[in-house]
Structure formats: structure tokens, C-alpha cells
Predict the 3D structure of the following.
Amino acid sequence: MHDVKNFEEWDFDSVWTMGEDYPLLRWQTGQTKVSIENAKIELSENEYVYDGTAKTPSVKVILDDKELKENTDFEVSYENNIEVGIARVVVIGVGDYKGIIAHNLLLLSIWV
């Protein structure tokens, strides 16, 4: 009984948490934040041609068929998003959400 796997179809991401002996509702333990680590990230663009400017595609985060709101449910930062190579889009859960997920972004060089 001490294993989450024994409770199929129970929502351990946002409703339940495993106590010492049995499942507890998150509000009973003060664990009310929901992890975004299983969320799906969609970017407005996944590839860019290098032009010397920072690339900051818009980000859509979907968790359990719900679209989360930027600056309310998550914040976005960008790493290495100017030079040719692989950049990263980093999404951090805020408010009622927690966790960090990242997505790669490709910055291409075009030879003329």
C-alpha cells in the first residue's frame, strides 16, 4: 500500500501525495503546488536563421489538457539564444505550479 503504483488513476500530480502509510490529499500536507515537469511545451518557432539578434519564441505550456498562463502559472527564460547553435527555453512553474522544464531551440547559420 506504500507505493503510488498501487493506486492507478489517482492524480498524484495535483490532488494526492503518498503519506507514510497511505495516500493523503495534498491540502492535508500543505503540498498544494502542482508539478509542471510532465507538461508539454509548444514554441511558436523551433528553428531560426542566425542574424545576431536574440530569439525569444512565444511559449505555450499545456498540462493535463489545460493551457497554463505565462507570468501567472509559469515564467520563461532563454539561454544561449543569440549565437549559432542550440539555445534553450526554460520554463519555471510559479504561483500554484512548481518545477522546471526546458526545450531546445536551434539557431542555424546559412552560408550564401
